[in-house]
Amino acid sequence: MVAAKQSYEDSRRKRVEENKKRMEALNLPLLSQALKTSPKPSPTKQAKPRVVQKQLVVVRRSTRFANKPAPIYKEVAVDRVAIPRRILGRQRNLSNLVLASPEAIAEADEKAEKLVSGLPPGYPILTKSMQPSHVAGGFWLGLPVDFCKLNLPSRDDVMTLIDEDGDEYPTIYLARKRGLSGGWKGFAVAHHLVHGDAVVFQLIGRTTFKVYIIRVNGSEEGNNGAD
Fold this sequence. Notes:
Layout: H1 2-25, H2 28-37, E1 75-78, E2 81-84, H3 85-88, H4 102-117, E3 125-129, H5 132-135, E4 141-142, H6 145-151, E5 157-162, E6 168-174, E7 179-180, H7 184-190, E8 198-205, E9 208-214
Parallel strand pairs: 5-9
Antiparallel strand pairs: 1-2, 3-8, 4-7, 5-6, 6-7, 8-9
Protein name: TF-B3 domain-containing protein
Keywords: DNA-binding, Nucleus, Transcription, Transcription regulation
GO cellular component, one term: nucleus
Protein backbone atom coordinates (compact mmCIF):
# COMPACT_ATOMS: atom_id res chain seq x y z
CA MET A 1 0.00 0.00 0.00
CA VAL A 2 2.78 2.40 0.91
CA ALA A 3 4.71 1.46 -2.18
CA ALA A 4 1.67 2.14 -4.43
CA LYS A 5 1.15 5.58 -2.86
CA GLN A 6 4.80 6.50 -3.32
CA SER A 7 4.65 5.40 -6.93
CA TYR A 8 1.59 7.67 -7.51
CA GLU A 9 3.36 10.72 -6.02
CA ASP A 10 6.44 10.13 -8.16
CA SER A 11 4.29 9.80 -11.25
CA ARG A 12 2.38 13.06 -10.43
CA ARG A 13 5.60 15.03 -9.87
CA LYS A 14 6.92 13.71 -13.13
CA ARG A 15 3.84 14.93 -15.02
CA VAL A 16 4.06 18.35 -13.39
CA GLU A 17 7.68 18.69 -14.42
CA GLU A 18 6.85 17.67 -17.96
CA ASN A 19 3.96 20.16 -18.20
CA LYS A 20 6.19 22.94 -16.86
CA LYS A 21 8.78 22.22 -19.49
CA ARG A 22 6.12 22.31 -22.23
CA MET A 23 4.84 25.68 -21.00
CA GLU A 24 8.32 27.13 -20.95
CA ALA A 25 8.88 25.83 -24.43
CA LEU A 26 5.76 27.70 -25.63
CA ASN A 27 6.52 30.87 -23.56
CA LEU A 28 3.11 30.58 -21.88
CA PRO A 29 4.27 32.00 -18.52
CA LEU A 30 5.53 35.17 -20.21
CA LEU A 31 2.34 35.50 -22.22
CA SER A 32 0.21 35.17 -19.10
CA GLN A 33 2.25 37.83 -17.30
CA ALA A 34 2.00 40.13 -20.31
CA LEU A 35 -1.76 39.85 -20.30
CA LYS A 36 -1.92 40.80 -16.63
CA THR A 37 0.23 43.94 -17.11
CA SER A 38 -1.11 45.02 -20.52
CA PRO A 39 -2.30 48.67 -20.67
CA LYS A 40 -6.01 49.44 -20.54
CA PRO A 41 -7.75 49.71 -23.86
CA SER A 42 -7.94 53.23 -25.22
CA PRO A 43 -11.28 55.00 -24.80
CA THR A 44 -13.65 55.15 -27.71
CA LYS A 45 -12.82 58.01 -30.01
CA GLN A 46 -15.24 60.91 -29.84
CA ALA A 47 -17.48 61.06 -32.82
CA LYS A 48 -17.03 64.07 -35.03
CA PRO A 49 -19.95 66.51 -35.10
CA ARG A 50 -22.24 66.28 -38.04
CA VAL A 51 -21.74 69.04 -40.54
CA VAL A 52 -24.92 70.46 -42.04
CA GLN A 53 -24.52 72.38 -45.22
CA LYS A 54 -26.82 75.33 -45.84
CA GLN A 55 -27.95 76.21 -49.30
CA LEU A 56 -29.85 79.21 -50.54
CA VAL A 57 -33.00 78.42 -52.46
CA VAL A 58 -35.36 80.63 -54.38
CA VAL A 59 -38.77 80.95 -52.73
CA ARG A 60 -41.57 80.83 -55.23
CA ARG A 61 -44.30 83.43 -54.83
CA SER A 62 -47.92 82.49 -55.19
CA THR A 63 -49.14 82.94 -58.75
CA ARG A 64 -52.02 85.00 -57.38
CA PHE A 65 -49.68 87.73 -56.08
CA ALA A 66 -46.46 87.28 -58.10
CA ASN A 67 -47.49 89.71 -60.83
CA LYS A 68 -49.31 92.21 -58.62
CA PRO A 69 -47.69 95.44 -57.33
CA ALA A 70 -47.26 96.04 -53.60
CA PRO A 71 -50.35 97.58 -51.94
CA ILE A 72 -50.42 101.34 -51.46
CA TYR A 73 -52.01 102.74 -48.31
CA LYS A 74 -53.62 106.12 -48.70
CA GLU A 75 -55.09 108.63 -46.32
CA VAL A 76 -58.51 110.13 -46.90
CA ALA A 77 -58.88 113.84 -46.33
CA VAL A 78 -62.02 114.79 -44.43
CA ASP A 79 -62.63 118.53 -44.33
CA ARG A 80 -58.90 119.28 -44.55
CA VAL A 81 -58.08 116.79 -41.76
CA ALA A 82 -56.10 113.71 -42.87
CA ILE A 83 -57.57 110.63 -41.17
CA PRO A 84 -56.24 107.12 -41.86
CA ARG A 85 -58.69 104.94 -43.80
CA ARG A 86 -58.52 102.21 -41.13
CA ILE A 87 -60.21 104.59 -38.66
CA LEU A 88 -63.01 105.43 -41.09
CA GLY A 89 -64.31 101.88 -41.12
CA ARG A 90 -63.88 101.05 -37.44
CA GLN A 91 -66.65 102.67 -35.43
CA ARG A 92 -68.15 105.54 -37.33
CA ASN A 93 -67.85 107.17 -40.74
CA LEU A 94 -65.92 110.41 -40.27
CA SER A 95 -66.75 111.68 -43.73
CA ASN A 96 -69.81 113.41 -42.26
CA LEU A 97 -67.86 114.93 -39.37
CA VAL A 98 -68.16 118.71 -39.24
CA LEU A 99 -65.00 120.45 -38.09
CA ALA A 100 -65.24 123.64 -36.09
CA SER A 101 -63.33 126.73 -37.12
CA PRO A 102 -60.24 127.78 -35.15
CA GLU A 103 -62.07 130.92 -34.01
CA ALA A 104 -65.00 128.90 -32.62
CA ILE A 105 -62.63 126.53 -30.83
CA ALA A 106 -60.71 129.41 -29.27
CA GLU A 107 -63.99 130.97 -28.06
CA ALA A 108 -65.08 127.68 -26.44
CA ASP A 109 -61.70 127.32 -24.74
CA GLU A 110 -61.97 130.86 -23.39
CA LYS A 111 -65.40 130.13 -21.91
CA ALA A 112 -64.01 126.95 -20.35
CA GLU A 113 -61.27 128.96 -18.64
CA LYS A 114 -63.86 131.29 -17.16
CA LEU A 115 -65.87 128.32 -15.93
CA VAL A 116 -62.78 126.79 -14.30
CA SER A 117 -62.00 130.04 -12.50
CA GLY A 118 -65.42 129.87 -10.84
CA LEU A 119 -65.15 126.28 -9.62
CA PRO A 120 -64.36 125.54 -5.95
CA PRO A 121 -60.59 125.31 -5.35
CA GLY A 122 -58.81 122.21 -4.08
CA TYR A 123 -59.80 119.82 -6.88
CA PRO A 124 -57.48 118.90 -9.78
CA ILE A 125 -58.93 120.15 -13.07
CA LEU A 126 -58.10 119.57 -16.73
CA THR A 127 -59.74 120.85 -19.90
CA LYS A 128 -59.88 118.97 -23.19
CA SER A 129 -60.81 120.41 -26.56
CA MET A 130 -62.60 117.66 -28.45
CA GLN A 131 -60.74 116.26 -31.46
CA PRO A 132 -62.12 113.91 -34.19
CA SER A 133 -60.72 110.84 -32.40
CA HIS A 134 -62.51 111.89 -29.19
CA VAL A 135 -66.00 112.19 -30.66
CA ALA A 136 -65.93 109.75 -33.60
CA GLY A 137 -63.90 106.91 -35.04
CA GLY A 138 -62.09 105.14 -32.23
CA PHE A 139 -63.60 107.19 -29.39
CA TRP A 140 -60.37 107.37 -27.41
CA LEU A 141 -59.73 110.20 -24.95
CA GLY A 142 -56.06 110.67 -24.10
CA LEU A 143 -55.27 112.58 -20.91
CA PRO A 144 -52.19 114.68 -20.02
CA VAL A 145 -49.36 112.49 -18.73
CA ASP A 146 -48.41 114.78 -15.84
CA PHE A 147 -52.02 115.01 -14.67
CA CYS A 148 -52.35 111.21 -14.73
CA LYS A 149 -49.11 110.64 -12.81
CA LEU A 150 -50.06 113.11 -10.08
CA ASN A 151 -53.75 112.40 -9.65
CA LEU A 152 -55.00 109.18 -11.24
CA PRO A 153 -54.55 105.49 -10.27
CA SER A 154 -51.32 103.80 -11.28
CA ARG A 155 -53.26 100.75 -12.50
CA ASP A 156 -56.23 100.28 -14.79
CA ASP A 157 -59.44 101.27 -13.04
CA VAL A 158 -63.03 102.38 -13.55
CA MET A 159 -63.45 106.16 -13.69
CA THR A 160 -66.96 107.52 -13.14
CA LEU A 161 -68.00 110.60 -15.12
CA ILE A 162 -70.80 112.66 -13.55
CA ASP A 163 -72.46 115.18 -15.83
CA GLU A 164 -74.17 118.38 -14.74
CA ASP A 165 -77.51 116.60 -14.39
CA GLY A 166 -75.97 114.17 -11.90
CA ASP A 167 -76.05 111.18 -14.27
CA GLU A 168 -73.12 108.80 -13.89
CA TYR A 169 -71.18 107.12 -16.71
CA PRO A 170 -68.55 104.47 -15.87
CA THR A 171 -65.49 104.44 -18.15
CA ILE A 172 -62.34 102.35 -18.30
CA TYR A 173 -59.12 104.18 -17.46
CA LEU A 174 -56.01 102.60 -18.98
CA ALA A 175 -53.10 103.61 -16.77
CA ARG A 176 -50.30 102.69 -19.16
CA LYS A 177 -51.92 104.49 -22.10
CA ARG A 178 -53.06 107.45 -19.98
CA GLY A 179 -56.62 107.73 -21.25
CA LEU A 180 -60.28 106.71 -21.18
CA SER A 181 -61.33 103.82 -23.40
CA GLY A 182 -64.44 101.68 -22.87
CA GLY A 183 -67.42 103.76 -21.78
CA TRP A 184 -66.13 107.04 -23.15
CA LYS A 185 -68.01 106.47 -26.42
CA GLY A 186 -71.28 106.15 -24.49
CA PHE A 187 -70.65 109.43 -22.71
CA ALA A 188 -69.65 111.25 -25.90
CA VAL A 189 -72.65 110.00 -27.88
CA ALA A 190 -75.12 110.63 -25.03
CA HIS A 191 -73.96 114.24 -24.74
CA HIS A 192 -73.67 114.83 -28.50
CA LEU A 193 -70.07 115.95 -28.26
CA VAL A 194 -68.66 117.43 -31.46
CA HIS A 195 -65.31 118.63 -32.68
CA GLY A 196 -64.24 121.78 -30.83
CA ASP A 197 -66.36 121.34 -27.70
CA ALA A 198 -64.44 122.21 -24.54
CA VAL A 199 -64.89 119.59 -21.79
CA VAL A 200 -63.80 120.37 -18.24
CA PHE A 201 -62.93 117.45 -15.94
CA GLN A 202 -62.92 118.17 -12.19
CA LEU A 203 -61.49 115.30 -10.12
CA ILE A 204 -63.80 115.21 -7.06
CA GLY A 205 -62.77 111.70 -5.97
CA ARG A 206 -59.98 109.21 -6.55
CA THR A 207 -61.85 107.73 -9.52
CA THR A 208 -64.63 110.30 -10.07
CA PHE A 209 -64.77 113.24 -12.49
CA LYS A 210 -67.36 115.97 -12.46
CA VAL A 211 -67.74 116.98 -16.11
CA TYR A 212 -68.76 120.33 -17.61
CA ILE A 213 -69.29 120.87 -21.34
CA ILE A 214 -68.86 124.15 -23.23
CA ARG A 215 -70.41 123.90 -26.69
CA VAL A 216 -68.31 125.10 -29.59
CA ASN A 217 -71.37 126.70 -31.22
CA GLY A 218 -71.81 129.03 -28.26
CA SER A 219 -74.30 127.11 -26.16
CA GLU A 220 -73.33 125.58 -22.84
CA GLU A 221 -74.28 122.26 -21.26
CA GLY A 222 -76.26 122.26 -18.02
CA ASN A 223 -75.72 124.94 -15.44
CA ASN A 224 -72.21 125.75 -16.71
CA GLY A 225 -70.68 126.10 -13.37
CA ALA A 226 -69.92 124.66 -10.01
CA ASP A 227 -72.37 123.03 -7.64
